[in-house]
Design goal:
Distance between the termini: 43 Å
Shape: globular
CATH architecture of the largest domain: 3-Layer(aba) Sandwich
Strand content: 15-25%
Largest sheet: 10 strands, mixed
CATH class of the largest domain: Alpha Beta
Helix content: 25-40%
Bound molecules: pyridoxal-5'-phosphate
Radius of gyration: 25 Å
Number of strands: 20
Amino acid sequence: MPATRLDTARIRAAPRMIDSVFLDSPLYRCEALEAVLGCALSIKLETANPVRSFKGRGTELVAGLLAESGPRAAVCASAGNLGQALAWSGRGRGLDVTVVASRFAPAAKLDRIRALDARLELVDGDFDMARERAAAIARHDGIRLVEDSLHIETCEGAATIGLELVDSATPFDTVLIALGGGALATGVGHMLKTFAPGVEVICVQPSGAPAMTRSWHRRRVVTTEATDTIADGVAGRRPIPEVLDDLLLVADDAVLVEEASIIAGMRMLLDHAGLVVEPSAALGIAALLEDRARFADRHVVTIVCGGNVDMDAYHRWIGAAPGHRGARSRGRALIPRARQRTSRRRGMTLQRMDHVGIVVDDLDAAVAFFTELGMEPGGRMPVQGQWVDRVVGLDGVEVEIEMMRTPDGHGALELTKFHAPDLISGAPDDAPPNTLGLRRVMFAVDDIRDTVDRLRAHGGELIGEIDRFEDLFLLCYLRGPAGVIVALAEQLR
Ligand SMILES: Cc1ncc(COP(=O)(O)O)c(C=O)c1O
């Protein structure tokens, strides 16, 4: 048994203090996702409860103890889910709950905290600034400070998920756990290492919020100056030393994943499991996407740990991700091969015309123009990353895109505003991809390399390279007749 701060007997007794609505959450094989991820996969679903996250397990213990013996008032800092859960647990026990959160936390989380009768104080900073403010309120008002991951009840509450996993009849090899402050990972990890030490415990964090993962690898607390991720639930900068010590005892690995993988994971959970999840809950799927070979022969459990997400942002992310089939999504036209009619001509398969991209100077004005014309905007989306640079053949690309569709969904324009590199005006025949008014037409094809070879014979020249976006697409830009850029996309599955 690992010598963490957690107590196995207390964890075994904990379910008696936790409202049953949070307990015995579904654990099931998700065959549809298995088919696309290439490994055996079970989902432990922690979103089907009144606060739509696992945090209720811990706050039930916290609030239960406070109601029995402690002060009647408590304050916590929260990225949103702990606050909502403490508000829920406190309300049922007549406790006075104050939550301190970032002004930039998802409105869906902040609204629910207010709706559950908690006092909500917002700080003009991130989660770690909210932590400082909550501590100051506790000192000043003499009320109980509930510190997520430090207070043992938050970890032991989460550990009841581990209890359910080890008590289940499902045999599994690996558990992927979203890592923020560490309550979830230390809790679940403690139970697994105690009762199923052969099961691999892997923590997953976004590359944009890597503090705890870096700390785990260096075996000492490493802080970061800032975070940059859509996974707001796990975006901490200052790991708690006691939690790191526990994590070092129970985790086998800690990995970082890219934002694009998190979005792809959210989309897959929607498409193949029918689950609307917040970004933190897609970290496990993101890890699978980024290292398929590692998990290919494993039975993996991923804990789907939260579903509190602003729907506007959700639609923007999901809609902008390639491969989605939603009515207004950017990638709508990049639909699976099986659903497409193909037309063959001299051996080359052209599936359909996807969209036309236009580089614009004033994105708002361009969107307004095409909206006026009757097209429907699909949502704004920033795009950058090394894969973009490689595909378009430019360095340091930072663009904002808006996909406009005709109401019937068949025609689409992608309006692109380059923030970097600078816009280039005037269009010579070899105009680079950041040229104002550029004509670029994208086609979905069956075999990108074969297509490039064939088009070369007609003067087509690759502008950048053929490169891979995730495991989803091969992409390239090709110079076509009269300088038009012909972009090609081959869907990989
Ligand atoms: C949805 C979700 N996933 C993961 C986490 C990370 O959990 P922990 O902070 O216990 O590591 C949180 C934290 O609030 C969360 O809300």
